[in-house]
Every structure is written in structure tokens, then in C-alpha cells.
Amino acid sequence: MNKTIIIAVLTIAACGLSSTALSAPTVSYNPANGGIWFQNDTGAPLANASILSTSGKLKTASSLLDIPGAYKDDSELPFAFTYLGLPVGLSFAGYIVQPGSQCSDLQFEYRTSSLTGPLIQGGGFCFPEPSSCAMTAVSAVAFWGTARRGRGWRRVV
Q1: Does pTM top 0.70 for this prediction?
Q2: Residue 85: which of 107, 110, 53 has the closest Cα?
Q3: CB–CB of 47/117 below 8 Å?
Q4: Is a pLDDT exceeding 90 seen at residue 87?
């Protein structure tokens, strides 16, 4: 029973479902459709939040959505866009990145309290591929079956 619980927890963690409570702002990018999601858990609006593409893989300004309470600056597209006053919580910026773009091409930068404060570099922000989650789930089922089968043999002997 304990092995089953451990395997289930590891499977959920591998798919990224356990990382819902964070204190630093994060960005999620889905390479399949080019969607960008901001998650601001700082407790206050961010002074600015920017996405940069070193190779200019961002789409046109019409793909960048309005976020209530924030001002969008799309003057540097296709290389960068910025939201000023990004509100607390989850915000969807739109399908602004060209689908299939590499995660290594994108960068996330933000300032927490004022536009003159230090610029903070965010980390990597790609969703796991659906096939990665499927492989993790299949592996977890295989481990569970092996553990259950091994336990059954011990009872017979």
C-alpha cells in the first residue's frame, strides 16, 4: 500500500500538478499551441513581466490578449512583449509564441515592486509534453504491477 501511494505521488509530481503554490512569479509555455500563462503568487501586482525571444519567434500584437488591470506593451514584437502592473493570480496572455518554438529561445524577466527595482530573471517554463506524462504513467503502472506481483509471491512461499 505504501509503495502504491509513493508511486502515485511521484507520477503526479512528474506531470507538474503538485506545483500549484509558489511564491515567485512563473510563466508556463505550451510548445504545441504557443500559449503563455503568467502565475503571480507574490501577493501584489508585478511592476512588469516580460517575455523575450532571442530569435523573434513571437507573433503579432493581435495575438497578445488584454489582461484586466495590466497595461500591455507590444512595441518590441516579435522579440519581446511586456505587461505593466500584472495582477495577482493566473493570467493568460494568448497564443503569442509560434507553435513548436524551443523553450530555450524564450526568457522571462520581471520586477516586483517598481520599474526602477532590480530586474529578476525567471526560470524555464515549458509544460511537459503529453507523451512524457504518458510514459511516466505507464512506468508507474509497471512498478505498481511488479511490486504487487512480488508481494503475491512472498505470500505463497
Answers
A1: no
A2: 110
A3: yes
A4: yes
The position carrying cell 497595461 is: 71
pLDDT tens, 16-54? Answer: 554 444 478 989 999 899 999 999 988 899 999 999 999
Q: Which residue has the cell 523553450?
A: 103
Q: Please say whether the beta carbons of 69 and 49 come within 8 A.
A: no
Pick from 86, 109, 106: nearest CA to 31: 106
As given in the structure block, the three cell numbers for residue 80 are 519581446
Q: What strand order describes the sheet that includes 106-111?
A: 71-73, 80-86, 46-53, 106-111, 120-121
What does the alpha-carbon distance between residue 7 and residue 37 come to, in Å, rounded to a whole number?
29
Return the SS3 of 131.
helix
Percentage of the chain lying above the pLDDT 90 cut: 46
